[in-house]
Amino acid sequence: MGTIVISAQDGLPSANDFRISDKAIALLEEKARVMDKKMEKSMVTYLSKLQRQEKKLKAKVWKKDSSLAKQLFDGIEEKYESLNQVPIQVSKYSQVYSGHLDSLTTALKFLKGGKLDSPDLTKALSQFSSLQGKLDQAEKIRSFLSERKRMLQENLERLGMLKSLKGFQKQAYYYSAQVRELKSLWENPSKLEQKLLEVLSGTEAFKDFFSNNSQLGSLFALPGGNAAATSLAGLQTRASVQQGIQDRFGSGPQVQQLVQENLQAAQEQLSDLKNKLSQYSSGAYGNSTSDIDMLEGFKPNNQKTKTFLERLEYGANVQSQKASSYFPATSDLGISLGYKLNDKSSIGLGASYKLGWGRGWDHIRLTSEGMGLRSYLDVKIKGSFYVSSGYEQNYRSAFQNIQQLRNLNGWQQSGLLGLSKRYQVSKKVKGDMKLLWDFLSYQQIPRTQAILFRIGYNLK
After folding, report:
1. CB neighbour list of residue 425: distance below 8 Å, 6 or more residues apart
2. What domains are there in the chain, each with its CATH number?
3. What would the pLDDT profile of 346-387 be if each residue is shown by its tens digit?
């Protein structure tokens, strides 16, 4: 991790007294760059999917009402192309507020004001600005999709084609959900970011700078800020409103009563707005996905908002078997790689190695007693219980080298069906107990074990 240093100076530290290493700045820039790329990829991918849905809808509507199809879909391709373009210049008052991004941007601007003007610092600030642009564009897209969904829904309902909108709504929902998940990841600070903000926040110089230069400070009067002198351009003050009323209507008691009644009505409307805003994501405006509702019966697959790598799960398990007249005591050591199809099911492939232990404590001898190739499907039935199934090919003979495994006649098949129980071991590790029935074991000569019990662990 990079270093953050406060110079030993007399008096209170100012921006000139802080030093942050180029490595630390590069780490800050890298996190923003990665998130920027993910936001861009999500935007391009889902806009492309939505365009395809629009083409399908247009073809269906055209068959029933060509004039309505022209009205609904003419110029829509150009609109999607424009949504793919992110403005280079970012407005001071962004459509989406990210508290974490605002804090980091203001922190680096504070350091830059202290004559710490390195190329890495400028690059990091530029990357933060680019990320803010992606967040704003995502909100613009969300707003467009919400309005587009409403328009299509109204017109398709009149044609009795409401079900045809389901594909469009799914893609719109998943885009909005993925953006929300990416924002949540961004708002989770790294240790370096925590340290930087912790050090700076402990100084009056940064507090004053934040109050006057952050997005939050520009919107609200923060303690220590100069909000009174920096009112937002175009916004009327309470005093100017009162003066305008007096100039136009006078200052009699009837006028005052009328103003009071209207103020109460306005307060009620503000209260309603506040209740709606409480449904938005915490700490930001423009972060809602609630207005992209789905048709009745739709159950979102939360895995669709994750990347391919995020949907992978890694597993390891062990299964032991006591010695018999044919086989020594063995342990099957298995590894697996799974892919989550949805929130309730996953498929995967794996391999196992059968380690022989000998025929008792007095005759311990480590040998290679077999190999196995596995596939599986797990489906959640309730809580932490799953139905587990699988197909395996096992080489059950002892071998000395890999060349022996090429003898296909030595491989036997297994068909597995059973139950599994998953339990939490740590934040990233889950335990897994499986009780399986090998319904193909009765065909094997010599007959293999029919009931299998495996204990394993899955890594997220």
Report:
1. 431, 457
2. 4-230 (no CATH), 308-459 (2.40.160.20)
3. 999 999 998 888 766 667 778 888 899 999 999 999 999 999
